[in-house]
Design brief:
6-phospho-alpha-glucosidase, manganese, 6-stranded parallel sheet, alpha/beta, 50% helix, 461 residues, single chain
Length: 461
């Protein structure tokens, strides 16, 4: 059993490897391979991964660290994909260029997400072709690479027969916070959900078989935010950290979705539900439903990319350097939690045909009856050896359907524009996105994005 992590130099790699290693018996894993195009970055992450496997957990799992495609993918059973094309330098551009024009600057939402998607489409197709060439015929690619909605649509169009499942850990991060707020175990929660990636709603949250959404609504209304009570003891400190983007020094990656500017995201859940209380929104809906407000409390000179570089990135690589110099390890420098557990548990479900329930991004095919058949939607599914068995949902109310169709068509136009090299279709994708105030602003942002993405984007005519 061989598992390859494509994007092995990611800061998430150590946590994912630990999740795999802790499930060694269920996965029967013999070898873990790290593959990345950034050799030195991956080498450093590999040092920490080696410590996790062989010093911390004392397992006999073989570790291979490589930049060679054949070595990375030959006979692989699973490929966990987590590529970030252009790195944090380009993420910073995705966030800051729209903000300069008074629009939402976010890595997966709005024009930033569309720009990131344009960079990722063809590298993902190349990855699929490499895995097809070298891996076992029964391979599965489990994709965490963002923006997952655009990536999954591109894979549907360009590589429809690929054995790839696109997933996202944000709904799971939300459930982690919900469980803490309701003071229950997340293992006791079963939820229903519909949407597109980073664009959906929880319609039911059951705890031990009892509907808990009314109780959660009351909690959110009382606290005017969706965060556990333990986090709210010092609201002033939370707000100060949000404004400065400070994630703190102590155990910086535990609850990574609740630090720094994330405060506004969880506050936004309350604000959305004050107007539309029926469903619990995915936190990313803030960027579409509160574009004006999120631009107002954003700092165009210091965005989330800078926060992450100064905290998670710096902490991890400083910790690795310290380990190489002194032999002392600080486990708090890497994140191990739901992000890694989710993808490792999905691999177990596929391998062992468990029919466990997961939230996945998959072709609609009637699962949401009033959405297009070929839409890539995010819905619950039972996972077995043949892949997702989608759990059909009720028809979507007109408000949510209207929002989803606008977002879906924006993403479809982007993929078409990238494939055809069509400036007009990409401009239509930018203009149609709900974060845009006008076609003129959309064109200004697109032209700036073209300049910033030279060497990454296909040429547009």
């Amino acid at each position: 059993m061989i598992i390859t992590l494509a994007g092995g130099g990611s800061t998430f790699t150590p946590g994912i490897v630990k999740s795999i290693a802790l499930r060694k018996d269920e996965l029967e894993v013999d070898e873990i391979r790290l593959y990345d195009i950034n050799e030195e970055r991956q080498r450093k992450v590999g040092v920490l991964v080696d410590w996790i496997l062989h010093e911390d957990l004392k397992l006999d799992i073989k570790l291979t660290v490589t930049t060679d495609k054949a070595e990375a993918f030959t006979d692989a059973d699973f490929v966990f994909a987590q590529m970030r094309v252009g790195g944090y330098a380009m993420r910073e551009q995705d966030e800051k260029i729209p903000l300069r024009h008074g629009c939402v600057g976010q890595e997966t939402c709005g024009c930033g997400g569309l720009a990131y998607g344009m960079r990722t489409i063809f590298p993902m197709v190349e990855l699929i072709d490499d895995v097809e060439k070298y891996a076992k015929p029964t391979y599965w690619i489990l994709n965490y690479s963002n923006p997952a909605a655009i990536v999954s649509e591109a894979c549907r169009v360009l590589r429809p027969k690929a054995r790839i499942i696109n997933i996202c850990d944000m709904p799971i991060a939300i459930i982690d916070v919900v469980a803490a707020a309701l003071e229950c175990s997340k293992k006791d929660i079963v939820y229903d959900y519909f949407g597109l990636n980073h664009f959906g709603w929880f319609t039911s949250i059951e705890v031990n078989g009892e509907e808990a959404l009314p109780r959660l609504r009351e909690y959110i209304k009382e606290h005017e935010i969706l965060l556990p009570a333990a986090f709210l003891a010092d609201k002033q400190s939370l707000m100060k950290a949000a404004k400065s983007g400070d994630e703190g020094d102590e155990n910086p990656e535990q609850n990574r979705h609740t630090k720094g500017s994330w405060y506004y995201v969880w506050k936004g859940v309350y604000e959305i539900m004050e107007l539309f209380p029926e469903y619990l929104p995915n936190t990313y809906l803030n960027y579409y439903l509160q574009q004006k407000e999120f631009v107002e409390h954003s700092n165009p000179e210091r965005t989330r990319a800078n926060e992450v570089e100064e905290t998670r990135e710096k902490n991890l690589f400083d910790g690795i350097d310290r380990y190489e110099k002194t032999g002392e390890i600080d486990e708090s420098v890497f994140y191990a939690g739901s992000h890694g557990d989710w993808i490792a548990d999905l691999a177990i479900a596929l391998k062992n045909d468990t029919k466990a329930r997961f939230l996945v991004i998959t072709e609609n095919r009637g699962a949401l009856p009033n959405m297009p058949y070929d839409a890539m939607v995010e819905v619950p599914a039972y996972i077995g050896k043949k892949g997702p068995e989608v759990i059909c949902q009720d028809p979507i109310p007109l408000f949510q359907q209207g929002l989803m169709m606008q977002q879906l068509n924006s993403e479809k136009l982007l993929v078409q524009g990238a494939i055809e090299g069509s400036y007009e279709k990409v401009l239509q994708a930018f203009t149609l996105n709900k974060t845009m105030p006008s076609m003129t602003v959309a064109k200004e942002i697109l032209d700036d994005m073209i300049e910033a993405n030279k060497g990454y984007w296909p040429e547009l005519h």
